[in-house]
Amino acid sequence: MDNFLYEEHNIVGKDFPFIFHTDRVYSENGTPNWHANIELLCCIQGNGIVKCGDAAHPFAAGDIVVINSDVFHTVYSSTEVLYHCLIVDIGFFHTNNMNVDKLYFQEKIEDEEMYSEFLRAADAFQTNRPYRNAVIKHAVLGFLILLCEKYASIRNEHMQDSPGGERMKKVINYIRKNISSDLSLDAIADSVGVSKYHLAREFKKYTDHTVFEEINMFRCMEAKRLIGEGMSVSAAAHSCGFENMSYFSRTYKKYMGGLPSEVAKMASLNEKL
C-alpha cells in the first residue's frame, strides 16, 4: 500500500499514450492524489470544486482544469459534477517537441475554443471509426498545441507544488501505510516534522477535511476493497483499524453511501456466478 495515492498510470508503450474516462462525482469526500503525467479535466454537467494544492477552482460546464505534474489534487461536489478526464503521458509531449518539463500550465481555463477542442478529442475516444487511434492522436495533439500556445508559461521555482503540498503527500502515504494502526495526530505530525497544530491547519487547508475525517474515509475505502475480495465484514473492519462494529457501520455509511454488508452480499453473489 505504499504510495497508494501516487498514481503510476498504466500507460503501456508509446502507441497509445493516453487514459480517458468520464467521471461522475457527487461527494464532498474526494480522494487526493498526484502523478507525474498531465491530467486534463473538462466539466460537461453540474458543479464541483477541483482542488490543486491549496487553490480551489470552481468547476462547472464549459470549464477546463489542468493538473500539472506532481500537483496534489482532488475533485469533489456537494451536489453532482460530470466531467471528462484525459491523462496524457509526458512522453507524448516530448515526442512532439513540447518540452513540458519546463512548462507550467494555467490551472483554470474558461475558453470556448479550448472547450470545443477538448470535446472533439473526447468524441474521438468515444466513437469507433477507421484509424481511430490516429484520429485520437490528431485531436489530442491539436488541443495540446492550443494549450501550449495560450496557457503555458516557463516553469520557475514558484510554480512547483508548494512545501505544504509536498508535506500532504507524505502525510497521505503515512496514513495509508499505517491504516490498521492506532493513528494519532502526534505521530503523523512527527512523521513530517511539524507540530500537530500546524498539521491540522494545513491539512484542512489542502483537503477541506480534518486529518481524522481523511483517515476514516481511507479506512472505509480499504475495508470496501477487502470485503469485495471475500474478507468478512468484521475482519475487514478490524484490519482497517475499526474496533467497534457499530461505529464502523455508521462511519462506512457516511463515507461510502451504503452498508458494508451490501458489499459482502455482492461479493457472495459474484462468487456463485
In short:
The protein has 273 residues and is of the alpha+beta class.
Q: Mind telling me the CATH class of the largest domain?
A: Mainly Beta
Largest sheet: 7 strands, antiparallel
**Helical run tally:** 10
Mean pLDDT: 87
Number of domain modules? 2
Q: Helix amount, in percent?
A: 40-55%
Which architecture name of the largest domain does CATH use? Sandwich
Straight-line distance between termini: 30 Å
What is the CATH topology assignment of the largest domain? Jelly Rolls
Instruction: Catalogue the unreliable spans.
Output: 1-6
The CATH H-level homologous superfamily of the largest domain: Jelly Rolls
- Rg is 20 Å
Order of helices and strands: EEEEEEHEEHHEHHHHHHH
Strand residue content: 15-25%
Q: What's the total number of strands?
A: 9
Shape field: globular
Quickly give the structural class: alpha+beta
Describe it for me?
The longest helix is centred in the middle third of the chain and has 20 residues, at 132-151. Helices cover 46% and strands 20% of the residues. The model is unreliable at 1-6 (pLDDT under 50). Strand 2 and strand 3 (55-60) form a beta hairpin. The strands form two sheets. Strands 1, 2, 3, 4, 5, 6 and 8 form a seven-stranded antiparallel beta sheet that branches. Strands 7-9 form a two-stranded antiparallel sheet. The protein folds into two domains: 18-158, Jelly Rolls (Sandwich); 163-272, Homeodomain-like (Arc Repressor Mutant, subunit A, Orthogonal Bundle), CATH 1.10.10. It is globular and about 55 Å long. The chain has 273 residues and is an alpha+beta fold. It has helices at residues 90-95, 112-126, 132-151, 163-177, 185-192, 196-207, 211-228, 233-239, 245-256, 260-272, and strands spanning 18-25, 38-52, 55-60, 63-67, 73-76, 81-88, 103-105, 108-110, 152-154. The protein contains ten helices and nine strands.
